[in-house]
Every structure is written in structure tokens, then in C-alpha cells.
Sequence to fold (617 residues):
Amino acid sequence: MKNAHLLAMLALAAATLTGCGPKKPTLHLYTWSDYLDPELVTAFEEANGCRVKVDTFDSNETMYAKVQAGSGGYDIIFPSSYQVSLMAQNNMLQPLDKSLLPNVVANFDPSYTRVILNPEMTYNVPYAVTFTGIAYRKDKTAGITVDSWTSFDNPAFKGRSSLLNDFRETMGAALKSLGYSLNSTQPEELQKACDVVLRWKKNIAKFDNEQYKTGIASGEFVLGHGYSGDIAQVMLEDPENIGFAFPKEGFTAACDEMVIPKTAKELALAHAFINFLYDPDNACRNIQYICAPMPNSKGIAKLPQAYRNNPAILPPAEILAKAEVLKDLGASNALYSKVWDTIKATE
Amino acid sequence: MKRNPFPLIMLVLVLAFLYLPIVVLTSNSFNLSRFGGTWEGFTLKWYSQLFNDSQVWAAFINSLLIATGATLASCLLGTTAALALHRWRSRLQNIHYGLIYTPLVIPEILMGISLLLTFTAIGMNCGLHTILLAHTTFCISYVTMTVLARLQDFDDSLIEAARDLGANAWVSFRRVQFPLLLPGIISGGLLAFTLSIDDFVITFFVAGPGSSTLPLKVYSMIKHSPKLPVINCLSTVMLLFTFALVLTSRAFQNLKQPKAPNGLKNGGHA
Fold:
């Protein structure tokens, strides 16, 4: 079986190299790893008589560097919102033809408009929305309610919590806990936020972006500042003990979008693929695969109960209202990195 | 006499430092827990996920094609370069040696970005062929150096003897010099193969749509994948593969260079 599979792949690869295989159009996607249900890709290939090749990147910055250096040929890219703005400014994107995207027009959920940076959707269609919040062990919080950023101050969790090692996220959390916007560029507000993070730093175990999931899953950590998509995956494996809290002061929202770069070759196919993903059934399947909502009202309505009731996957409307989108701050980014350096350097 | 325990302690520490991470990685590939923090039981499910992941396999095929192509091309070019460097000494050959030596010491990132800029400047679309060109470029140096080392032990009088006995330049190369160099060429080729299949930095820059190699795929999975243990499985498989290659390469390097080829010994003048 496996050998046959491997042989078929070899034959396919050989056919591509020599160029004597049947000429099918190929759609090239450039996205995050394991961020698209492979069965949907197969279904699209069969329905459209084409081939879909998926390449993956690990950060918006590396993707941007490569595409800007002239590595063209991708038909759909999946960058985060702030990167979309930058790419649009640099004239790297193709305006979308809405008449080819009837599913997007019909199924887009307007309640998500607030958390999307480019709601006019000239160049972009939202793919998935994620939030940052606090993952916690229900069995180890000893009756303390976790619903606020101030939990990181709580001595009960001393040495058993982690904050994200990301200056926008963690500074954002501190700014929100003080009641400011998480896109603040006021030096005095940033200074106050700096003091808050320094206070938290004395109470937490570490700043971390990856291992906190392990810590929460194993119960070594009680609190973990993290991304909803990641935590939703952990929660599905241990729903009894792991919870996800949206801090009441507000929290960040981020969106990954689908864009068609100027250098794309298969324009019609690219539009067809975006439209295909916005089909309610397909959207529903993909949301379950990636554990983050695509703002597609009919697709969301079809989700099974376990997914619909998981707040990390589908936050209720009143919670969604407290989300704020991280914006690209341009020159003010320097202010943040300076404060962050201070935080990192202080013992 | 009491033996000094210090060397033994150092040996154990060094071995632990080098191999413990590999042991942890390998055992985690069999761990039921997705996060590897705690041992939750033995499983092969990550391996079955790995073998059913068509993207990983497509990347693996790409890596294999590129490594094979780059190895063959660099063996041919590298051996030729080594022969030229060995036979002729001139100022031009010194420059040649410098050119061959540079890719060994140049930072990979510099090579990657300069190759990408070259390819875009001449309007070449990136893809498997650009990765192949890039890999061949740095592999040539390694093959040349390995073959050159072999040539330094080579007894030139063997060629003279062959020519004396009536072999022309081509026959004396094919029947005398080439068989003696072959272990060097093969071990250089295996070195090139492992380097090519492992390379991340240069490949990252020159890869185009649809030409992701295994290291590129693994890197993006580490940063962004809910299937982390699959990477452990993949790394285990790759480790075994690399160990096998290195061992073979060592075996070829250790082949004793015989004093004279068998053909000459037996069929010579009595």
C-alpha cells in the first residue's frame, strides 16, 4: 500500500520534471503549516480538474521577504491582517473580483467586521480569526475565578503561569489591564504598562510562545497567556480540566486572510478556491480542522455542538465586542521594542 | 595503580550531551501525549499520520530528487576540478582553488540571498531547478576537497607505468586512476547528498512554488502545527537515514588504498 503510494508519487514527480504528464492547471498556495484540511484540497482538485500545491511558511516576515525578493508564482497567500495592509501599500496584491466570490458575499458574518483590519475586502478575504486569552487548569485554580489580566498578579499562581514572549501581545495585555487601547502610542501609557509587566514578571514562571501548551496540558502550569486556536486544540483533548478565559478588560484579535498576489498565474482558479472554502459545508469542515472560526455564518451554524460550545473556538457575541485588533504601528513599533528590551533586561 | 576517573566522566558527559536530545526526540515520537512533557503510553499513531501526510511525502520526494541530482552533478564537476587542481600548478589554478574553497567558508545566508538575487535578475522562476543549481554549487566544493585529499596520497608513478605499458591518457585514467579514486568520489558524493538533503538556509531562499523540500516543511511545521510529534517521527526516520549514509561514507573512506591495482599485479611482466 505505502509502497504503491510512494511509487505513484515518484512517477508523478518524474512526470512533472520531464513535463510529459497530462497538462493540468496547478494552483499554488502559500500558507501556514497544517492550516487547511487536506481532504478539502483533494475535493477541490477533483471538482476542478486541477492540481493544488501547498507550500508553507513559518512567519509573515519570512513570507513577505521571499515574495518581495521576487519569488513569484503563488496564487493565494494566507498572511495576517497587518501584513495584508503592508502588501497592499507596496502594490503587491491583486484586487479581488467579487462577482467570482458569491459564497463570500452571501455567507460572510458581519459580526466579525469589527475584528478585521481591512473590512472593505478589496484585496483580502478573512480566513480565520484568532484571539489571545488565558488558558487555565480548572482543577488547580482552587476556586479562584480567572477572568482578568490581574490573575497574573495573583500570588496563588506564583511560578505557575506564563506570558507570551511577544511584545505586542504582552504589552497589549498590560495596556488593556490599565484600560488603554492595545494600539496605544502614548509614551506615558506605555511606561505604566511597562511597570505592570515588570510586576507580572516577578510572579510568572517565564515568557514563552510554544511550551506553555505542554505546561497547561501536563498541569505543570496553571495559567497560560496564549492563542485561542492553540488552546482550543489542547482543550479538545482534555475538556474537563482545561478552560479558556477572555479577560474582561479586553484582549487582542488577529485575522489570517486570503490574498491573491500580483504575480499570480491562475486568477480564475484562485478565486474559485476562495469561493470553495466559503461554501458552508467546506467552511464547517475547515473550522473543525484548524480550530479557529472563519467568519462564515452558515458554516458556523453547521458546527457540531462540541465545537460551537467551546469559547476558544467560537466566542459569544458579547465577548467578541471586547476584542481589539492589533494594528501595524509603523514607526511607533520602536517605542514598544525599547520598553520590551527594558522588561527583558530587568531582573 | 589507581586509574584517573576524569576521562571516563568526560566521556559520559560528552556522550550524554550529544546523544540525550536524540534519545528524547526518538522516544517522544512513540509518546501518546501530543506535547511530550509526560509519558502517556506507547503509540505508533504519529508514524501512521506521518506516512499518510501527502505534503510531507511530496517534500521528501523533492528533497530526494534534488539531493540525487546535486550529488551526481557535483561528483562529475568536483572530480574534474580536483584532477585539474592536482595536475596543474599555476597562478590560475590558485584562483581556481580559492573559488572552490570559498563556498566552504562563506555564510550560507549570503550564498542564499545572492543566488536568489541572481535568479530573479536573469528572470529565472524559482523552483526545483533553482534549488538543484544552488545545491550543486556548494556540493562541488565538498566533493573536490574529498577527492583532492585522495589524490594527495595517489602515487603518480602508477600512471607513468600505465603509459609506459602502452595505455593512452584515457585508458590510464579509466583503468588505473579512476578505480583508485572511486572511494574518494563516493564518500564525497555521500557527503554532498547528506548536505543537500539537510540544507535549509540556501534552499529557503531559492525555493519556488511547489518545490518545498523536507527541511523547509519541517521548519514551518515546528513553528505552526498541531501535529508536533509527527516531526519527531520524521526526525527519527531522517536520523536513521543520515546515520546509514554517514556510516557508508566512513566505510568507503577507510577502504585501504591498495599499493597497486589487481590487474597490474597479476597480469604484469613475470
